Amino acid sequence: MVSAVLGTEEQYQQPGELEPVQRKSTAAIVADQLRAAIMYGSLPPGSQLGEAELAARLGVSRGPLREAMQRLVAEGLLRSEPHRGLFVMDLHTEDVADIYVARLAVERAACEQIVRHHRVEAVAELTAAQSRMVAAAGKGDAIELADADQEFHETLVRVSGSARLQRMAQTLLVEKRMCLTALQDKYHADVQALVDEHKGLVDAIESGDEALLLSRLEAHMNDALERLNGSMAE
Questions:
Q1: Rounded distance, CA 77 to CA 37, Å?
Q2: Residue 6 has what pLDDT?
Q3: Is 14 exposed, middle or buried (0-12, 13-18, 19+ CB in 10 A)?
Q4: Around Cβ 51, how many Cβ atoms within 10 Å?
């Protein structure tokens, strides 16, 4: 009975089907804004969050703000220090390596689900996401390219159909972007190689070759980690 219920609730949503409108609470909206501020460096690593100042800037009361900040503490993006307050997490070399260990585990699981159950949807959505990377690369816009890269990986996990993988990936992708933002003056990716690697992932999904897909994903993650480590060492 439990399996039957779970199977009904977790069926993959087909494109174009109507579904209930999700209304976000004020705390969820504030959490999204804080997450974006951390990701883009408006709230840099190590900075302290002043409750009164943030409430005024966001135009919200302290209740939803506190709830939002506690969400980010639970996600690991903020740390609480007794008698001092809340601070944005710092990321060190060992943290970056750990981020990529976790990302590979999450995205590997997502890829397995995609190849086995959601190939058609994945190819369509990831092809569109990769096209946005190509457009950003053509304009030479590093921020837009990073946004498109992030969207590609968010889409990859979402199309797997696993809400739990999505939750885990969300924080990991924000942390990855924190690294890129902090190293923006030192980090220099091979843009064409980056675009080609993502195209290779889409091609492997389309072919249905799970072993090839997982091999390319691991190589992609290792290349990204190597570039980040090189930038941090400068």
A1: 11
A2: 42
A3: exposed
A4: 13
Alpha carbons 148 and 192: distance in angstroms, whole number: 14
- Take residue 189 and report the two structure tokens written for it: 């990716």
What angle is formed at CA 225 by the lines to CA 224 and CA 229, rounded to 5 degrees?
120
pLDDT at 194 over 90: yes
The secondary element (H helix, E strand) that includes residue 86 is strand 85-88
The pTM is what?
0.80
- The overall average pLDDT reported for the chain is 88
Torsion angles phi and psi, residue 78, rounded to 5: -120, 150
What is the percent of the chain with per-residue pLDDT over 70, rounded to a whole number?
A: 87
Rounded Cα distance between 64 and 7, Å, is 34
